[in-house]
């Protein structure tokens, strides 16, 4: 994003939890701020120092500690890159129950600390369910060992849940125990072009009804986002004929145990959709080869990069009712136009994409440059809009440094008060990732 810059002079790269503990203890005694850093792919500035805090980078803690192919339970160092864990699991016929566009750089510790959602939450649920245990270095240097591999453990407060999504403000995650899933034997995808956004939800219902247990992703891409992906060479564009008249697109993925069975279901779905009068879709492209499968995904996964190449992006990762996605995009566009900001020298595009199944819209305002005028037009406007729909100002990216001031739009005063009490209990000296999640 290139939006946040710190002034740290020191980055330490420990190899063990004991080394992390020694660093943190030293910092706590001297009131030195510490910023845990994973793959640095976060989109809200959480891993960037606010001032001159010391950075603890987890990249050297990158070993798999154990894997049990009967239970599917994986225990790994927090610095393992998500893609390496997927590669490790491949020959064992298992997959990490999490997938995102940044998988080549983000780390499992960073994923846990941001409670990352991603492309397959629809299928595997959230990390609050699949993470079984954590090893965490607390702000006073104590190592909290909760690296259990038990699926059932009702022995009082489930402390690990506090660190999932804490964005490094309560401690440094050094080890993760996670329940992985049996690898699907067959995955397929299909890109559908829709004439109108109002067809997205009826389509979602129909897709769920027909694909049921094999549905693993249902991703929405609006027309402007698709055009940016194509412009910046992400994936192979659909044919002109398939795109003509499309208002938006939906990428559907299936993951099952029999290719033949899944393909039959997809062909039938496509046939039924095309046969309807009026049809919910204009056209559909079914991947017929692994290369085409990857290429269709590349359009969706390449959107963040495409937006970054097009200009400076104001990113809003919000939860709103699924039927309001387009309304949010339209209202934001109209609002910016009313301020005279919708032109090439100010805001070039307002684009939207996201995880329909999870009610998560990525609203991206792509500008020529970051300016105070655009920012004040967008905030608190977008947050007020989200609050009006009783949504969340951060569906999956977290609060980081970017949204601390906006927390009250999604959390009431009592909740924030208790968050502060918890922070103070774990970190009375305020050394752990200061200025993130809660305002300084
Ligand atoms: C192309 C692209 C696509 C993306 N797609 C998605 C998506 O679909 N879904 C989604 O949820 N996010 C997505 N993201 C955002 C980002 O990848 C996730 O938030 C990811 O989980 C961050 O992991 P990381 O290792 O890079 O963490 P970092 O960016 O290094 O850190 C993120 C936060 O976690 C803290 N942290 C990191 N490691 C630790 C640790 N070991 N212990 C304690 N705190 C720690 C940091 O201090 C910081 O507050 C995307 C980003 C990009 C660039």
TrEMBL record:
Catalytic reaction(s) noted: (R)-lactate + 2 Fe(III)-[cytochrome c] = 2 Fe(II)-[cytochrome c] + pyruvate + 2 H(+)
PROSITE patterns the UniProt entry points to: FAD_PCMH
Q: Which Gene3D superfamilies match?
A: 3.30.465.10, 3.30.70.2190, 3.30.70.2740, Uridine Diphospho-n-acetylenolpyruvylglucosamine Reductase, domain 2, Vanillyl-alcohol Oxidase, Chain A, domain 4
Names of required cofactors: FAD
Check the record and name the InterPro entries matching this protein. FAD-bd_oxidored_4_C, FAD-bd_PCMH, FAD-bd_PCMH-like_sf, FAD-bd_PCMH_sub1, FAD-bd_PCMH_sub2, FAD-linked_Oxase-like_C, FAD-oxidored/transferase_4, Oxid_FAD_bind_N
Keywords of the record, alphabetical order, are: FAD, Flavoprotein, Oxidoreductase
**Ranges where the FAD-binding PCMH-type domain occurs:** 4-183
Q: Which Gene Ontology molecular function entries are recorded, alphabetically?
A: D-lactate dehydrogenase (cytochrome) activity; FAD binding
The source's superkingdom equals Eukaryota
Name the GO cellular-component terms.
Answer: mitochondrion
| Family affiliation | Belongs to the FAD-binding oxidoreductase/transferase type 4 family.
Under what name is this protein listed? Answer: FAD-binding domain-containing protein
Name its species. Answer: Daedalea quercina L-15889
**Organismal lineage:** Eukaryota, Fungi, Dikarya, Basidiomycota, Agaricomycotina
